[in-house]
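Per-record layout

source: Sunxiuqinia elliptica
name: Carboxypeptidase regulatory-like domain-containing protein
length: 134
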Amino acid sequence: MTDMKRISFLLIILAFIFSSCEKDDATLYGNVYATLEGEQTAISESTVRIYSVKLADDGVIQGGSNLTPIAETTTNAEGYYSFNDLPEANYWITAVATVNGEKYGTNPHAPVGVYLPSGQSEKKDIIISELTNN
């Protein structure tokens, strides 16, 4: 084998190795909205938290789920949030904000759920509503 063929062969092998080493982490992003005066409005300064959860076949949370947020972010002026470098898993997302002096958030009994496959990006908008103490 000539030196040029060996170099070409090695370059092909290196290209294959590097292409198979791509990052497999996922991204979750979206906007937080609330209905204000009959209009769906993007909510800035919302606190968005993400939790990693393990689900049984029937969808019930299993022991060992991390019910402490694994990350937290704040929405920008357009209500946009994102979480990057997430491993493949099931997640819950919650959001809370103070809107016109009132507390808004996701339903505490029905958080937003999403499954993120490895290497994927998923848009998940979150709708928050006024929270009551009932």
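summary: The domain at 24-130 is CATH 2.60.40.10 (Immunoglobulin-like). The mean pLDDT is 84.
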